[in-house]
Amino acid sequence: MSGAPQDGGPGLPARWLHVAAGIAVALAFTGYVAGTRPVPERPEPESTPGASATSERAPSYRELREARRGDNARMYEGAMEALRQGLDPLTPTAVATVEQRARAVEARKAHRAYDGAPPTIPHEVDPLGTPGCLSCHGQGMKLGERIAPRISHPPYQSCNQCHVVEASPKPLAPYPDVPANRFVGRTSAGGGARAWPGAPPTMPHAEHMRTECASCHGPTGKPGLRTSHPERQNCVQCHASSAALDQREPPVGLLDSTPPPGVAKEVP
Amino acid sequence: MDRRDFLKSTAMTAATLAASRLAYGQAAGPTPPVATGAGGGVKWNKAPCRFCGTGCHVQVGVEGGKVVAIAGDPKAEVNKGLLCVKGYHVGLALYGSDRLTQPLLRKGDKQVPISWDEALDVIASRIQKDPKGFALYGSGQWTIPEGYAASKLVKGGLGSNQLDANARLCMSSAVTGFLATYGVDEPAGCYDDLDACDVLIMWGNNPAEMHPVLFSRVIDRRSRGEKVTLIDIGTRRTRTSAFCDHVLRFKPNTDLAIACGIAHLLVENGTWDKAFVDANCAFRAPSEPATLQGKAITFDEYRALLAPYTPEHVEKLSGVSQQDLRMLAGLFGRQDVRITSLWCMGVNQHTRGTAMNSLIHGLHLLSGHFGKPGDAPTSLTGQPSACGTVREVGTLAHALPGGRVVAEEKHRHQMEDLWNVPPGRISSKPGYHTVQMWERFSTPTDQGGDIHTLWVQVTNPAQTLPNRHKLVDPSRKLADKFLIVSDAYPTETTRIADLVLPSAMWVEKNGMVGNSERRTQQWFKMVAPPGQARDDAWQLIAVAHRLFERGFEGMKDKDGRFLFEVKKDGKPVPIWDFQHYYDVNVDAHLFEEYRKTTRLKHKDLAPYEEYVKARGLRWPVVQQPDGGWRETRFRFSGFDDPYVQEGRDIDFYHSPTHDGRAQIWFNPYEPPPESPDTEFPFWLCTGRVIEHWHSGTMTMRIPQLQRAMPSAYLEMNRADARRLGVGNGDIVTVETRRGSLDLPVWLGGRGEPPEGSLFVPFFDERLLINELTLDAHDPFSKQPDYKKCAARVRGRAKKEARG
Amino acid sequence: MTFSSLVLTLEDSAEQRAGVLALLERDARITLGTPLEERWLPVVTETATPEEGESLADFLRELPGVRFLDVVMVDFSGGEC
Asked: Which residue of B has its CA nearest to C47?
């Protein structure tokens, strides 16, 4: 099906579109039904086991991706670029309300053990190969209402060293009866301190490893966290980082380093 | 001072003050100590991560007496601010809702709460009944002071050597490999090699999941534009393979043939480093009967022994192509590249583990890829203090602290002097090693089962020992056998215990550990343990004091004082009373005493307070003329190691032959003890996953980790799955000659074994794969092979059809 | 003479930082303090006039390797001596 149709009047593309849309709807419907139906028990193998070995096998997604040749090769070329458009409307936005901020904090909590923890991954991933996280998260992407936030820290290649999926990967069943965990993490960094009303707030969280503020605070960030002035790009010009949170405490000797309270420092 | 100078210095003071405000958020200078807390009163402090042997440092955020956040520590050289997913969630390990919070004593078939006072009485009475029949089984997760206190209690106090640790099952082939080659344990190189190497060879190793921070340290160099060649020599495709330039698949057990094949090519091509070998090495081969020392051979004999390992022959044995073998030999033969080798359980849990460890060291020595930054054979450890506690303190049946052995009279006298106990207190007879210890415990007393009481700390042997049915379970049916278990959570082992003691863990106590690169690390207690959970070291000292109160001679030193006496302002502090345990820093006292034992093997440690300041220091740490303390990165290398003889580039000063030479071993390939056949046609390999730490006691209680990897599974090749007619998620039965287990199949999952191979992770306490694995072990290290045996797979439907 | 107290915030890159330090050391008008955390560098400039001080500060601000320049204090009394 390579190449455009050779002949035909102006009606043809429209008809093509109709057919394609019809197929898409049919596919979506089948997918919906298949997805909501309970997974059928694997039937008892009545036929000879040889049958499954000889039948044609549908290629896996990984195999498709690896197949750079054939009819579907390069079909997504340029698609990523198109999806990235619309991420940079650098016009001032409204200042977040308290309520929006609370909602944003709540939404963040769902994917993090504590404020500052690497977020878990809210979608399925390839559990083996080199992760392809950066193809969407490298530059950030918007697909309808779904947003792939741009990576906030330098692109470490081994993404799944720190980020794991948040639902049991198929086909593994969730573990039943796990003891609860009573850890209560810091849920929110809170607002940054202001020297006086109207002064730019300081960063309430660590800057360590994170350089791309727009990942959370840019126009595609959660409404409660968005900056009101996305046109200004050099955030650290006005918003000071916290020495304590960035672990820039003075070197030993400059200030006395003491063990936490209640812990003996005495040494023989 | 003229006016100009005055103005200038005033201006500089102002500028410096302003700079320090920017840098530290406060003025520098002699201001009173300011809590570093910010962001809602969170206080931060350093600690090494609780989990693996990498030894990353984390910053622990504490608020309201609880850990509330974790951050990577950018000041730590090991991890430079980065962690892995386990490390980022390590704080949650303290807060599983089923923490043990009070001592429990078995009465009938119930475990009922008792007081600590009663618990100490029970233990003291068990010991007094027959001190020589009391044994202590510890762990590579013991802190250094805990391990030292255990050694002093058993060897200096009870006068027996019934002390061993779980590291016997995971690192012992690495130890025997080091001893056979260099005459002294632990790696010469360090993690700095990862920053300098041009080639990284991973032998049966999957650091992308098991040592992820070290792996990132290498692949992140690539993102910065450096060229590093990564080579995966393994038996299955892993996350590590995905990043590698060369992926070499070999048939299980043939890694020895590959190593011999490379050595053969180096010798035949004349590309081995003759100058390095002439100056620093000698050749060695297995003797009859086999010993760890082997027999000396000449270079010509070495060459002749290698002769059969032609590329053609090795290709046939291993399945690795001649071209790839020549590529590896070509790299080792080049002097302009730096080569680092990494290995861990693939090489150690191997019936030929000692031999394979020695062969990798031998390749680096033969080719001169040794002792320069980036040129190193580096064995990785699993547990956070397998090196620091088990290997260095020596919590083993034959060992004494600081590399000493009970068999040597001089060593016993040195320790008796340090502990101020009468001569002859320390027994010259080694105790039982792990398997024997449990065997004796599970044998009736009248049939030679002379261990009547066994105390387990910081490990879960009922899940991790091989042959539980033989080693553990019989003791539970013998009325006079008593099992004591200290742990933080209920485990397979606490469930069958007679006495359960609740333990404090990680930052609920002070601690010190030693990682894979000889780095000793320290942390302070930051939060209180729950309920009546208490430090493991306190538990040991409190039992010692209960015996002392009862007049037990062994707990007194020569002058009649308590063996663990700690004085403050000239007066003994009652540290056996937990209320007073933190009146002094007991860890610091134990460590300062232990430190005196470390010079013998040139593993010198610095004073405690140096470790308070540092993010760990690598031994030998030697005092400088200016009073400062300097760590050693490259051991045996003249440019860095202060113990190398003046003027030498390399000096193996603990050489097994006492002439400064390391041994290049020839070890032949031998077929594995069990291979697939028509009845059991698959290879079965077991291992770990990134989310879970060992038996899962901690990580299965962390929701983020448990959800991401909820259960064990069977990994197999798609072609095999098609042939057997099983699909993704089907439950199948895996069988070996030793047992069977039902598991879900995961195709295209975490790894991808080649056709004819299976893989199952071992973290899941409901699905214990270790009951299927082989109990054959290495002849020298006694370490079992968990990595290869013959298995078969049956669809469950078929099984049900057969009834 | 005019003395100005400045703090330079340097870039993260070690190479750029070394470049800046090497350049500043060559300028006789500039006295360097001890950099804190390798990043915040206290500096005193000594110029004939406040105007020259200002233009020197502008020059420093634009240097590659300097992220920010904070003016802490300018001593205008110098004109009298």
From this structure: B8
Looking at residue A149, the DSSP 8-state letter turns out to be: P
Q: Cβ contacts of residue C47 below 8 Å, gap of 6+?
A: C1, C2, C4, C29, C53, C56
What local confidence, expressed as pLDDT, does residue A90 receive? 62
What is the total residue count of chain B?
803
For residues B411 and B432, give the distance between their C-alpha atoms in angstroms, rounded to a whole number: 19
Above 80 in pLDDT, residue B30? Answer: no
Whether B342 and B203 have beta carbons less than 8 Å apart is answered as yes
- Please report the ipTM that was assigned to this predicted complex: 0.92
Using a cut of 0.95, tell me whether the model's pTM lies above it.
Answer: no
- Lookup result for tokens 């105790």: B431
The answer to whether residues B86 and B691 touch, using CB atoms and an 8 Å cutoff, is yes
Report residue B78: phi and psi, to 5°.
-65, -50
Nearest to B23 among C40, C44, C81 (CB): C40
Gap between the Cα atoms of B222 and A156, Å rounded: 10
Counting Cα atoms < 13 Å in the Cβ hemisphere of B191 gives: 26
Tell me which chain C residues have a C-beta less than 8 angstroms from the C-beta of B28.
36
Contact map slice: A 50-89 vs B, CB within 8 A: 52-53, 57, 60, 62
Domains of chain C, first to last: 2-80 (3.30.70.260)
Rounded distance between C-alpha atoms, residue B357 and residue B179, angstroms: 10
Q: A208-213, long-range: CB within 8 Å, 24+ apart, which pairs? A: A208/A245, A208/A246, A208/A247, A208/B71, A208/B72, A208/B74, A208/B81, A209/A153, A209/A154, A209/B72, A209/B81, A209/B82, A210/A152, A210/A153, A211/A152, A211/A153, A211/A154, A212/A150, A212/A151, A212/A152, A212/A153, A213/A152
Six-digit token string for C52: 């020259």
User: Which residues in chain B are closer than 8 Å to A175, comparing Cβ atoms?
Assistant: 700, 706, 710-711
Highest average pLDDT, of A80-89, A128-137, C60-69, comes from C60-69
Cβ-defined contact of A175 to B749 (cutoff 8 Å): no
Query: What's the pLDDT score for residue B663?
Result: 98
Please state which of the ranges A136-140, A257-261, B531-535 shows the lowest mean pLDDT.
A257-261
Catalytic residue among B49, B52, B84, B170: B170
**In B270-367, which residue ranges form alpha helices assigned H by DSSP?**
274-280, 299-306, 311-318, 322-333, 345-348, 353-366
Per-residue pLDDT, B202: 98
pLDDT value, residue B163: 97
Q: Which of B59, B111, B349, B383 is catalytic?
A: B383
Q: Is the pLDDT of residue C23 over 90?
A: no
Most A-contacting residue of B20, B26, B31, B36 (CB-CB within 10 A), to test interface: B36
Q: What is the pLDDT of residue B768?
A: 85
Report the distance separating Cα B748 and Cα B744, nearest Å: 13
Distance between CA B45 and CA B69 in Å, rounded? 11
Inspect the interface and report whether the beta carbons of B11 and C7 lie closer than 8 Å.
no
Residue of C nearest to B17 (CA): C42
pLDDT higher than threshold 80 for residue A262: no
| Nearest chain A residue (CA) to B568 | A268
- Please count the CA atoms within 13 angstroms of the CA of A133 that sit on its side-chain side: 25
- Predicted local distance difference test score (pLDDT) of residue A83: 65
Separation between Cα atoms, residue B364 and residue B335, nearest integer Å: 12
**Closest by Cα among B340, B366, B263, B230 to B634:** B340
Strand B295-297 with B281-285, pairing: antiparallel
Q: Which residues lie below 8 Å from residue B312, measured CB to CB, with a gap of 6+?
A: B322
| Residue from A65, A158, A257, A258 to probe the interface with B (highest B Cβ count within 10 Å) | A158
3-state secondary structure B492-552: HHHHCCCEEEEECCHHHCCEEEECCCCEEEEECCCCCCCCCCECHHHHHHHHHHHHHHCCC
Name the minimum distance, in Å, from the CA of B414 to any CA of chain A. Answer: 22
Against chain A, the chains showing at least 3 CB pairs within 8 Å are: B
